[in-house]
TrEMBL record:
Domain Hcy-binding span(s) in chain numbering: 9-316
Organism: Rhodoferax lithotrophicus
Pfam families in the record: S-methyl_trans
Keywords: Metal-binding, Methyltransferase, Transferase, Zinc
Cofactor entry: Zn(2+)
Record InterPro entries: BHMT-like (IPR017226), HCY_dom (IPR003726), HCY_dom_sf (IPR036589), Hcy_S-methyltransferase (IPR051486)
Keyword Zinc part of the UniProt annotation: yes
Protein name: Homocysteine S-methyltransferase
Residues given in the record as Zn(2+) binding sites: C236, C301, C302
């Protein structure tokens, strides 16, 4: 169990001051919208090398839109992925740290203007911890079934967590996890970083199951006794599945529910393209239904942008 003297829950503090904690929206697809070429196994982490200023600008724009947190460009930043590009472990660690530094700099620049503080809590920085499948860069985070033990998954996550947990972020965003085993592997590591809080969110394939096919309610129930996990929920999942998922999961946990769906389009991992129709029209209106079901941390994932987050902020910060 974490040391109570060092462990701090920034989500509980935020929710004690406002009814909804507004997350940011997509990073990678927003970078692409602004002209970045992310057709690369590193995805958004590629710009840590090539265009760090653009990452910082997107973080800043989400703060302006009303986001209470910046989620860093470390989702696909792993030692294995950087090694394939010829970077040493030291260089890879430096780039992971840079992802957090960029978000902190954007936050500090935003907060330095007194006008931005009116009616706002100071925004947080969440270090994105992508799943094992993100390192494979083949869409496995939407399938699961890795064929790895919990111990093997813990061994994969530990070195990156050692970097991210000590680089200045306020909490960890362990996101797009397709299966319970990966969530339990990460949970087993958190006591090694007992100053850090984390949220855990699963990718889901329908209104009841995570991407691997396990019931989401059962997954969050097994995380309920982990003190450092301060919120649980769903991300990068079609918006139409969110009400059912939240309603079921809410019955299985005492933790705040986090939801940040994608636009409803489907990702083609082979061709690195999104297909289908967006269901993110009236994003803020849909979010009111998620709130009614019990969601308290609300934002967007792939193919959502600052305009969607601004609409969320207008809806919930007027309460």
């Amino acid at each position: 169990m974490p040391n109570a003297a060092t462990f701090f829950d920034p989500i509980a503090q935020a929710l004690s001051q406002q009814p909804v904690f507004i997350l940011d929206g997509a990073l990678a697809t927003e970078l692409e919208k602004r002209g970045a070429n992310l057709n690369d196994p590193l995805w958004s982490a590629k710009l840590l090398i090539e265009q760090p200023d653009l990452i910082q600008q997107v973080h800043f724009d989400y703060f302006v839109a009303g986001a209470d947190v910046a989620t860093t460009a470390s989702y696909q930043a792993t030692f294995e992925a950087f090694q394939r590009r010829g970077y040493s472990r030291e260089e890879a660690a430096s780039l992971m740290q840079k992802s957090i530094t960029l978000a902190l700099q954007a936050r500090d620049a935003f907060w330095a203007d007194p006008a931005n503080r009116v009616g706002r809590i100071q925004p947080l920085v969440a270090a994105s911890v992508g799943p094992y499948g993100a390192m494979l860069a083949d869409g496995s985070e939407y399938r699961g079934n890795y064929g790895l033990s919990q111990q093997a998954l813990a061994d994969f996550h530990r070195p990156r967590l050692q970097v991210l947990a000590n680089a200045g972020a306020d909490l960890l965003a362990c996101e797009t996890l397709p299966c319970l085993d990966e969530a339990l592997a990460i949970a087993s590591l958190l006591p090694e970083f007992d100053h850090m809080a984390a949220w855990v969110s699963f990718s889901c394939r329908d209104g009841e199951h995570n991407s691997q096919g396990e019931k989401l309610a059962n997954c969050v129930a097994q995380l309920d006794g982990v003190p450092q996990i301060v919120a649980v929920g769903i991300n990068c999942t079609a918006p139409e599945f969110i009400p059912s998922l939240v309603a079921q999961a809410r019955q299985a946990t005492t933790k705040p529910m986090v939801v940040y769906p994608n636009s409803g389009e489907q990702y083609d991992a082979a061709h690195k393209q999104w297909h289908g129709c967006s269901h993110s029209d009236n994003f803020a209106q849909q979010a009111q239904a998620w709130y009614a079901c019990g969601a308290r941390l609300i934002g967007g994932c792939c193919r959502t942008g600052p305009a969607d987050i601004a609409a969320l902020a207008r809806t919930f910060k007027a309460r």
